[in-house]
Write a structure and sequence with these properties.
Layout lengths: L29 E7 L3 H14 L4 E3 L8 E6 L6 H21 L5 E5 H7 L1 H6 L5 E3 L7 H8 L5 E3 L4 H7 L6 E2 L2 E2 L2 E5 L1 E2 L10 H4 L4 E2 L2 H13 L4 E5 L7 E3 L5 E3 H9 L6 E5 L8 H9 L6 E3 L7 H6 L6 H14 L4 E8 L6 H14 L3 E6 L17 H26 L3 E9 L5 E5 L5 E5 L8 E9 L4 E5 L5 E2 L7
Parallel strand pairs: 1-2, 1-3, 3-4, 4-5, 5-6, 9-12, 12-15, 16-17, 17-18, 21-23
Antiparallel strand pairs: 7-8, 10-11, 13-14, 19-20, 19-22, 20-21, 22-23, 22-24
Helix pairs in contact: 9-10, 10-12, 13-14
The structure holds 5'-deoxyadenosine and iron/sulfur cluster.
């Protein structure tokens, strides 16, 4: 793992988690264990899989050995993702055998971007797998499972994204009996940009936007259930477009204005954006909408014009600086985050210095950096002058040191200031409640647990390694939920 801190990337970082849903009463419960790798879109997809399986009588379990169905929702963005999945499948084969001896059947499915990229090869190399299904087929999970249940090894990697959007199961009201305060909402999937290092256009397919109607409907349902913060997801979220209520084509800025009208949605975020698609309307939305949080993940990947060109990023470093200036003009307190790749083929020391210089000039609140990893089938993998691993390692350390210093400086600059926190759960120590700042930092606040679910003003008192500490501000203002039905 090479990233600097928590995951905020659009296409992956191996962060495993599990989705959950509850089964309607009176159904004969079977158990599903979903292991999620990678980006927030996989987290969202895993939850939709759990939702789609609930009417089939599946409830989620966190204990893999109890599961009748095990799904690995995989990520293919960097490194030996497929190899990791094959070793995980080796472990699961033993588990499946042990359960079979106890008279229990286990079905194993591989979903996500490795499933899309490897397809049939997975069933060939790991016959333990009953079902291989790509990201655009999740709405058909019950039918695919039924087919797999007849003993047929099912491989489904068609691109039928419009269908998926139309049939996506509705988000569950509550997970494990707890009201969700924050939620992801996929608005766009796929990518047409074809950056030469990136596998996403091949695993997630072409750029497709969900309709305004679907998105607003899902956001309203989330708000009615007490969700106060929604993060719009897309591999290229600011390429989103759709037909608005006024018959015109809307971009993300207009969509955000519409979502800001929904009562109860106090906080809006979106990720991940491409510099080329930050249009004036979106920048103005940052100026005008208090709900739109002042934290923007805007990957640039490199500070060298030569490397940006070789990466097919379609903009220069100067264009990125100008864009940052416009964003900061619109929203002076904007905290910026980014992604960087070191060691793209042909990257010289001078190119890397340009990246360091760009980071110095922009000043990030947080950022993620990775060693270039050649992805099968991408143009970058075939380029000459692949950079030796020891050179990449040295560059990565230098860049990460700078980013860590910037992150610490940003956190320290907040001490003594006031900001709002959405309280989400009990804190690390008794007497503390944990939430997130507008800048997405975890904050531990000395406050009563009754504030969970509320947004209140706090004063930042100190910084930890990954979080901030705070107390309720004098005369703090609690923004009570307006539409929560819990
Ligand atoms: N090698 C290294 N990093 C990559 N990323 C995407 N593809 C690769 C690759 N082949 C990084 C980019 C992207 C983030 C999600 O992952 O920085 O923004
Ligand atoms: Fe990959 Fe580039 Fe598309 Fe982002 S914009 S998903 S890095 S191809």
């Amino acid at each position: 793992m090479t990233e600097n801190s928590r995951s905020a990337d659009h296409a992956g970082d191996s962060q495993a988690g599990s989705a959950s849903a509850s089964v309607p009463e009176g159904t004969n419960a079977r158990r599903v264990f979903v292991k999620t790798y990678g980006c927030q879109m996989n987290v969202y997809d895993s939850e939709r899989m759990a939702d789609a399986l609930a009417p089939e009588g599946y409830e989620t379990t966190q204990a893999v050995e109890d599961a009748d169905l095990i799904i690995l929702n995989t990520c293919h963005i960097r490194e030996k993702a497929a190899e990791k999945i094959y070793s995980e499948l080796g472990r699961l084969r033993k588990l499946k055998d042990a359960r079979a001896e106890a008279g229990k059947a286990t079905m194993i499915g591989v979903a996500g971007c490795v499933a899309q990229a490897e397809g049939q090869e997975i069933s060939r190399r790991a016959p333990v797998v009953d079902l291989v299904f790509g990201p655009q087929t999740y709405h058909r999970l019950p039918e695919l499972l039924a087919r797999a249940g007849t003993g047929e090894a099912v491989v489904e990697t068609e691109f039928e994204i419009e269908e998926k959007f139309r049939h996506l199961a509705k988000p569950a009201a509550a997970r494990d009996g707890k009201r969700a305060l924050t939620a992801f909402l996929t608005v766009q999937e796929g990518c047409d940009k074809f950056c030469t290092f990136c596998v996403v256009p091949y695993t997630r397919g072409a750029e497709v936007s969900r309709s305004v109607e679907q998105i607003v409907g899902e956001a309203e349902r989330l708000a009615a259930r007490g969700v106060r913060e929604v993060t719009l997801l897309g591999q290229n979220v600011n390429a989103w477009h759709g037909e608005g209520a006024d018959g015109r084509t809307w971009g993300l800025g207009e969509l955000l204005r519409r979502l800001a009208e929904i009562e109860g949605l106090d906080r809006l975020r979106y990720t991940t954006s491409h510099p080329r698609d930050m249009d004036a309307e979106l920048i103005e939305a940052h100026r005008d909408l208090p709900q739109l949080m002042p934290y923007l993940h805007l990957p640039v990947q490199s500070g060298s014009d030569r490397i940006l060109k070789a990466m097919n990023r379609k903009h220069t470093r100067e264009a990125y600086f100008r864009l940052i200036d416009r964003i900061r003009e619109a929203r002076p307190d904007m905290a910026l985050s980014g992604d960087f790749i070191v060691g793209f083929p042909g990257e010289t020391d001078a190119d890397f210095r340009d990246t360091m210089d760009l980071v110095e000039r922009v000043g990030y609140a947080s950022a993620f950096s990775f060693k270039y990893s050649p992805r099968p089938g991408t143009p970058g993998a075939k380029l000459p002058d692949q950079v030796p691993d020891d050179v990449m390692t040295a560059r990565l350390h230098e860049l990460q040191d700078l980013i860590t210093r910037q992150q610490k400086a940003f956190n320290a600059s907040l001490v003594g200031s006031v900001c709002e926190v959405l309280f989400e759960k009990p804190g690390r120590n008794p007497g503390q409640v944990a939430g997130r700042s507008p800048f997405l930092q975890p904050v531990q606040v000395e406050a009563p647990e009754s504030l969970i679910g509320e947004i209140a003003t706090v004063e930042i008192t100190g910084t930890g390694s990954n979080s901030l500490f705070a107390r309720l501000a004098t005369g703090h203002n609690v923004k009570v939920a307006t539409s929560a039905s819990a």
